[in-house]
Structure formats: structure tokens, C-alpha cells
Design brief:
Layout (H helix, E strand, L loop, with lengths): L4 H7 L5 E6 L6 H14 L4 E5 L6 H6 L4 E2 L3 E5 L2 E5 L2 H7 L3 E4 L15 H10 L3 E7 L7 H8 L9 H5 L3 E4 L4 H9 L6 H10 L3 H23 L8 H4 L10 E6 L6 H15 L2 E8 L10 H16 L3 E6 L3 H12 L3 E5 L5 H7 L2 H8 L4 E5 L13
Parallel strand pairs: 1-7, 1-8, 2-3, 2-6, 6-7, 9-10, 9-12, 10-11, 12-13
Antiparallel strand pairs: 4-5
Length: 387
């Protein structure tokens, strides 16, 4: 990936996005972004800072000197004044580049958009290039992995497509021991929060796992770029940076009554990402699941999972039919599916013998498709919040 964002700016027809990705707070993402913004300013590029979250860090605050700051907007939330990025102000100012800290941030109630990444999409659509920061644990498809590895249930998450669609992703890396030392020196959190952070989120085990995830994410992006088909135009004309070679295709079978559908979808997203492939989430609606018959709880669950699937980058397909296996098999053949993802059945062995298993019948119907069966994993409340 190029290390000169100015060249990217000049080459692209559309407004590019550059993300500074890190394993945790305190590695230096915001400082790196601000320094790059100031460098571009010296090159004659019109750069403004849409929002920067200093969290009281003197080093970060010092780095804001030399960058034009768009005044924040104050919103009243339950009688408390809170500040957010003034999206309308940045759009009206229309710089060449806007710096936007903390992509996964949830905006104050009453804001135009619920999430900051949605603000960034508006800026990009308006032709304003963006440089932004993000911690790896906020990536939607990694939620289950982060929960398993660290015990932390990260509530603020962004769709994978934001990162996969970025024109440049830079890992701001720091060995876990150095980050822990920065914590002890008071460079990340106030002194009264340091010991709690070191015991809970910033353990050596957690940081090592998150660091590996961050490095792997960018390695995957580099690999995807290398898979471009021969004869593609150069980056200046190619549009999106990485082009999927359409040899592999993934299908996730989704039920309207899922026991762990969110985990199933994230498995599908990771599989498709690793294969650099198109992927589909397929839901077969039978007569018993018609709108007038399906219960309200199942309908809400189905709607929420369809939203999540789209955020993860899937193409959601709804099929109608009485024979679920036949519908899935026909779809798999028509789309050239190479990998299918199913959740483990909740049927007993006796029920499977009496009624048959959708999974077994699908494997017999399309033996050329590789099948991955994902076990039901209870999403436990870890009782921990990300610091």
C-alpha cells in the first residue's frame, strides 16, 4: 500500500479514505494522523480537523497545533451539553481532507447520524477525503474473536466494509510492553485509571491477541490487493483498491429462528474475507414463516440479522419455497457457491432420523460445495466494558 497519501489524493477520481489502525488506545494513531495532516498542509493541501479526541493527553493536544480545527457542535442530551463533530460545518467548509478521530464512536442522541463512520461516509460522498483512526476490536466480524480472546464485549462496532473499502490502511504498532509502560507513565489514562486498565483490558495476553489481529487484518488487505486479475488498470484508474477474483463464493444459510446467527454471520464474513470472495446470506422463507404467521420476536431477530449481514458486506437473498434444501441447493448451483456455512442443528438424533437433516440433504444435493458447520456458541455477557 502506498505510504504517500498526497499521491493517493492526486490519483483517485473519488475521495479516498485512509485509516490508522491500532490494537488499542494509546498506541499513537491520533498523533500519526495529525502529523500526516500537517505534512499535507505544508504540501499545499487544504486540511481541517473535523474532530480529535485528546482524552486529556498533552502530547495529542500539542499535535493539534498547526491544523485548522472546525468548531464542535454542542448538543443537549438529557439536559447535559455534549460536543460532537459538526458534520454540517465540515461539509460547508469543504476542505480537501478532513481528519476524523475514532471511527467507531457513537454520536450523541439527536445527531444526524447514529455513528461517526456514517458521518465519514457523508464526507466521502461529498468529495471530501478523510483520514481516520480505529482500534481493531471495533471491527464487526471480529466481535466473537475479541470476546473469546479478551473477555471484553465491545459494544461500539463498525461494518467491515468501511475498512475493506479504505484506500489505505496503516497499522500504528507498538509492542504490548511499551504500551503498558506508557500507561504507567500516565500518557494514556489518568493515574487513577491506570491499575484498573492494566488488570482488565491492557493485560499482556489481551494486547498480544489484539496486536496479532491488527497485523493480520492489514496482511489480508495486502494479499487481497495482490490477487487482482491480470490486466487491471493501475491504482489511479482502478477505483476500489482491492478487486476480488471471483473464483470462490461463500453462502451462509440463515434461519428466521437463529440460536447464534450473529456468530454464524461473522464466521461467514471472516471466511469470505480470507478467500477475498463474494458472499451471500440466504434465507428461505416457508409458508409457516409468512409475515402474518411469524411471531414478532422471530421477525425482529430476522430483521436485525439481515441488517448485520449487510453491514458485514454480504448480499442478502430471500428465497420462497416449501423445500428448503432444494431452494438452497438450486441457489448454490446458480451462483457457483464453493463454500457453504451452516449453524449446528438443534434437532436431536431421533428428530434427524425421523425428519431428515437439512445439512445432510444439502451435502448430498451439492457434494461439490465445501460445508462448514458452526457450533452454537452462547454469547455471554462478560461484564466488562472497553476502557
Amino acid at each position: 500500500m502506498p505510504d504517500d497519501f498526497l499521491a493517493v489524493l492526486k490519483a483517485h477520481r473519488r475521495a479516498p479514505l485512509k485509516i490508522y489502525l491500532g490494537m488499542a488506545a494509546g498506541v499513537g494513531k491520533t498523533v500519526a494522523m495529525l502529523r500526516e495532516g500537517k505534512r499535507l498542509t505544508t504540501e499545499g493541501v487544504d486540511v481541517v480537523c473535523g474532530i480529535v479526541e485528546t482524552h486529556g493527553r498533552s502530547m495529542t493536544l500539542a499535535e493539534t497545533q498547526g491544523v485548522e480545527l472546525v468548531p464542535r457542535k454542542t448538543l443537549q442530551y438529557r439536559g447535559v451539553p455534549l460536543e460532537e463533530m459538526d458534520l454540517e460545518g465540515v461539509l460547508a467548509r469543504k476542505p480537501a481532507v478532513a481528519l476524523v478521530d475514532e471511527l467507531a464512536h457513537t454520536n450523541v442522541g439527536g445527531s444526524k447520524n447514529e455513528k461517526r463512520w456514517q458521518d465519514v461516509e457523508e464526507l466521502l460522498d461529498a468529495g471530501i477525503s478523510v483520514m481516520a483512526t480505529l482500534n481493531i476490536q471495533h471491527l464487526e466480524s471480529l466481535h466473537d474473536i475479541v470476546l473469546r480472546e479478551t473477555g471484553v464485549d465491545v459494544r461500539e462496532r463498525i461494518p467491515d466494509r468501511i475498512v475493506s473499502g479504505a484506500d489505505e490502511v496503516v497499522v500504528v504498532d507498538l509492542p504490548p510492553s511499551e504500551l503498558q509502560e506508557r500507561l504507567r507513565e500516565g500518557k494514556v489514562y489518568p493515574a487513577e485509571k491506570v491499575e484498573h486498565a492494566l488488570r482488565r483490558f491492557f493485560t499482556s495476553k489481551n494486547l498480544a491477541a489484539l496486536r496479532q489481529l491488527a497485523l493480520r487484518e492489514v496482511a489480508n488487505a495486502v494479499e487481497q490487493r495482490g490477487r487482482r486479475e491480470p490486466g487491471q488498470p493501475s491504482d489511479a484508474q482502478a477505483g476500489p483498491r482491492w478487486h476480488a477474483v471471483d473464483a470462490e463464493r461463500v453462502m451462509v444459510s440463515m434461519s428466521s429462528r437463529p440460536s447464534a446467527t450473529r456468530g454464524l454471520l461473522r464466521h461467514g464474513a471472516r471466511l469470505a474475507g480470507g478467500l477475498n470472495s463474494r458472499w451471500f446470506v440466504v434465507y428461505v422463507r416457508t409458508s409457516s414463516e409468512a409475515v402474518e404467521r411469524i411471531d414478532a420476536s422471530s421477525l425482529r431477530s430476522l430483521t436485525e440479522n439481515i441488517r448485520l449481514a449487510k453491514e458485514l458486506g454480504a448480499e442478502v437473498v430471500r428465497l420462497e419455497g416449501t423445500d428448503v434444501v432444494a431452494a438452497l441447493a438450486d441457489f448454490a448451483r446458480s451462483k457457483g457457491i464453493t463454500h457453504a456455512v451452516f449453524g449446528r442443528t438443534g434437532q436431536s438424533r431421533l428428530q434427524e432420523r425421523l425428519r431428515g437433516s437439512i445439512l445432510s440433504e444439502f451435502m448430498r444435493a451439492v457434494p461439490e460445495v465445501d460445508v462448514l458447520v458452526v457450533g452454537a456458541r452462547r454469547e455471554e455477557e462478560a461484564g466488562l466494558a472497553e476502557p
